[in-house]
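Preliminary data (for renewal application), uridine-diphosphate-N-acetylglucosamine complex.
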Amino acid sequence: MKKLLLIFGTRPEAIKMAPLIKEFQKHPTEFETCVCVTAQHRQMLDQVLNFFEIIPDYDLNLMRPGQNLFQLTADIITGLKPVLDDFKPDYTFVHGDTTTSMASALASFYAGVKVCHIEAGLRTYNKQAPFPEEINRQITGRLTDIHFTPTPAAKNNLLSEKVAGHIEVSGNTVIDALLFAVDKLKNYSDKEIEMLKNTLDFSKRIILITGHRRENFGDGFVHICEALLEIAADPEVEIVYPVHLNPQVQDPVNRLLKGKSNIRLIKPLAYPAFVRLMNQSCIILTDSGGIQEEAPSLGKPVLVMRETTERPEAVEAGTVKLVGTDKEKIISETKRLLNDKDYYNAMQKTHNPYGDGLAVRRIVETMKK
Ligand code: UD1
Ligand code: UDP
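Predicted structure:
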């Protein structure tokens, strides 16, 4: 029997780890599966835990309003010591590139526990973008014993860095989660979904916005908001923006966009309502990593408000385009998608460069060996 400790803390990690937890739990004679949340996020994490019906075994409850990276990193490492001492895992599983991932991998290494890294090998090789995620993911890669990469390109990055350990291309578990949600949505509704049905004007073209990257704080967010104001001048569009709870995002977005016509600022949505809204959107404008992976599977064009991306596959396939936070570029690319049918159709094609929905099965099979 192998003892597994899955550690995560933020919304996207929870979405992408949830299907893996469920899959390990199907094999109770081979694995003792234990879940620890750092709660680097609180409300946005709990939304995911509720939807996937996951009750953590350990909850460090670390989130502080307006937290900083120094304190958060220290709190995660010291908070995990008693958990590692108590459960004594054979393996820990961490996900992606957050401070929770990096600090949990380091704590596991200090405790002499083998680390499995899900969504390994993504790189921009620019240490300022995404900040601090690029370095979080690189450090985690150095500490990892078993790397599960979403794509062959990510595996090649790890090979060229000569990382230690076993590397396997599993596909990205985000597609497993997305397919689960799309299937569940066929016979599912909740308060948020009803609220969206009753408040949004679906006869208009819905433009869905999300944003939270640290490198966009300050001027970046101001330029994004200015661009949205201009796009919203078109009476045929409805901009829907579930605003991330980070005060560095809430402040400029509320100051510049609250109460403006054709712009709906709403709270972060739970995963099913968000997936449904992505499906009903015409264009998605975002700086999110996970949404860049989900949207191609749903056949939605994405304009990415970042200068660079560690997920080049969909950009190469033409369904995702980088626009940075340049106001004019955001406006012109959005208007082109709205007005040029052929251009829109070319960006709309459905494809799955990041996975086929079988990633968690591959990961579990590897762990059985
Ligand atoms: C974090 C991750 C980022 C990931 C993102 C996903 C790091 C350094 N950043 O960024 O990689 O892409 O999550 O969303 O690991 N807050 C709440 N409630 C919540 C969540 C956040 O109030 O449920 C507010 C709090 O004031 C908190 C702040 O947002 O202090 C920032 O949260 P933090 O996790 O530090 O940064 P994110 O920008 O969310
Ligand atoms: N998401 C959600 N509700 C929202 C916005 C996003 O459930 O209001 C989901 C989205 O479908 C994706 C993930 O959250 O799976 C992306 O999280 P985020 O953008 O915060 O982080 P990143 O992927 O950039 O690390």
